[in-house]
Amino acid sequence: MIKYTGTNTKVKTQITGSSGVTYTYNQSLTGGYDVYSFSDGNGSYKICVFESLVGNSYSTIFSFTVTVTLKDEFAPFLFSNKYVNYSASSKVVLKASEMCANKKTTLKKIKVIYEYVVESFTYDYALAKTVQSGYIPDLDADMDKKSGICFDYAAVMTAMLRCQGIPTKMVFGYTGSIYHAWISTYSTESGWVSASIYFNGKEWKLMDPTFASSAKSSTSIMKYIGSGQNYTAKYLY
Questions:
Q1: What is the pLDDT of residue 183?
Q2: Which of 36, 55, 76, 186 is the right S-S partner for 167, CB 3.0 to 4.6 Å?
Q3: Could you say which DSSP state residue 73 is in?
């Protein structure tokens, strides 16, 4: 957790773990804490915070390294963070609790949540055309309007699954040349299913709620989603 207490109007936080991938965030300026995940698991992390100077120039205000040993390997993918931000009273949590109340297995919970998002949400093309760098979904607002871009779809579903105790990775990367967001989840029945979900009770499909929803789970889009061969992951949140 990091809280910025200065007066600069543009501050960035960078975190680099053992994978060598650097995660860059716009640090909140409201005086509250931002919660970041150790997505690479155990190991060394370099954490830097930068203040804006002029244009795209920044100055380092502090930098330090921490060695992380997780008590639970799933912890980074079980809790609320800066990009998947929810609390016990959030609408995503209440809805997930309602839908999963009588579901006895992890796979049944995953299936009902996935189908809810795919069938209830619509893609916001206007937002997609105007979205600015630094956009972060407001999950309660997403639940009210039942629409959003891929970031919103993935964040809503990630929050719903995590609040049910199901480890879930929100994945950012590329499908073809398109920058995109989707999710990967874990069950004791199958382990980590790499970017896939038990979708229709018979076969595994990539867990891409945005494409499945916007294309109404058409045969062609589900074939494209397939096993994930058309997707390249870059960041895990």
A1: 86
A2: 186
A3: T
**Angle subtended at Cα 62 by Cα 56 and Cα 65, rounded to the nearest 5 degrees:** 115
Cα separation, 72 vs 124, in Å, equals 37
Question: Which DSSP category does 71 fall into?
Answer: S
Mean pLDDT (10-residue bins), the chain, 237 residues: 95 96 95 95 97 93 95 95 96 97 88 88 88 91 93 93 94 77 79 52 51 46 48 83
Domains of the chain and CATH, by start: 2-70 (2.60.40), 91-236 (3.10.620.30)
Quote the CA–CA distance of 183 and 118 in Å, as a whole number: 13
* Helical axes 106-120 vs 150-162, angle rounded to 10°: 150
Enter the DSSP assignment of 68: E
Could you tell me the two tokens for 53?
């100077």
DSSP label of 88: T
**pTM of the predicted structure, to 2 decimals:** 0.85
Give the Cα-Cα-Cα angle 127, 109, 114 (nearest 5 degrees).
25
Name the nearest CA neighbour of 236 among 169, 159, 136. Answer: 169
Cα four-point dihedral sign 92, 97, 103, 104? positive
pLDDT of residue 2: 96
Sequence-distant (6+) residues with CB within 8 A of 54 are none
Q: How far is CA 139 from CA 64, 145, 158, 160, in A?
A: 32, 10, 11, 10
Contact 45/15 with Cβ under 8 angstroms?
yes
Q: Judge whether 195 and 229 are in contact, CB under 8 Å.
A: no
